[in-house]
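Tokens for chain A. Residues wanted.
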């Protein structure tokens, strides 16, 4: 359900459950967190992406009923990504929803296809967002727009997400791989300490 690639210093995790809109199970989240933890000190670029037309619909509905929505595994995953001293990129092949926000908010860069949509319906569903998500979201888009997403439950289009700073670039679907390569090139050609040093300064 997830493909992991460790190609030298470029590490990529690809959500590969398109028949379920790449919804996330406990095992998938645990594997992602382990992969991100393992990448520390080894990867110069860390990429999250998916297959199909949805990046992730968030938690698997069957597992939500079993308590996954409030599990601390989401925070473990986003914390592991945020802690990486390398360039981290979320290459969103489609819509981003719910708890899947956390791992992408923890990335340095977010690119998305033109038809992607963004929503985090915690108000409607009766759950609190994971603790670090509102802070990271507000840092990107500002407090009012964070409330627009988290409290007013608005679905944000890719152009609006770009305008408000939620994503950094809109990329045609057939250009995602090339864009990842373009964004990764400088970091991959640098030493790990140089990559980490610039990230620490920012």
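Reply:
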């Amino acid at each position: 359900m997830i493909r992991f690639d460790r190609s030298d210093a470029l590490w990529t995790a690809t959500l590969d459950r398109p028949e379920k809109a790449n919804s996330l199970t406990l095992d998938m989240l645990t594997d992602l967190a382990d992969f991100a933890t393992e990448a520390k000190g080894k990867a110069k670029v860390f990429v999250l992406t998916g297959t199909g037309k949805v990046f992730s619909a968030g938690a698997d509905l069957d597992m939500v009923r079993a308590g996954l929505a409030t599990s601390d595994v989401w925070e473990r995953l986003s914390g592991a990504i945020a802690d990486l001293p390398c360039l981290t990129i979320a290459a969103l092949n489609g819509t981003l929803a719910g708890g899947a926000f956390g791992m992408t908010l923890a990335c340095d860069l977010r690119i998305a296809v033109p038809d992607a949509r963004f929503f985090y319906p915690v108000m409607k569903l009766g759950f609190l967002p994971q603790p670090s998500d509102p802070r990271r979201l507000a840092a990107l888009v500002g407090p009012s727009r964070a409330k627009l997403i988290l409290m007013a439950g608005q679905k944000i289009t890719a152009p609006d997400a770009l305008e408000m700073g939620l994503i950094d670039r809109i990329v045609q679907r057939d250009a995602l791989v090339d864009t990842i390569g373009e964004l990764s090139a400088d970091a991959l050609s640098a030493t790990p300490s140089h990559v980490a040093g610039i990230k620490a300064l920012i």
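The beta strands are 2-7, 10-15, 45-50, 54-56, 87-92, 95-97, 109-112, 117-119, 156-157, 169-170. The chain is about 45% helix and 20% strand.
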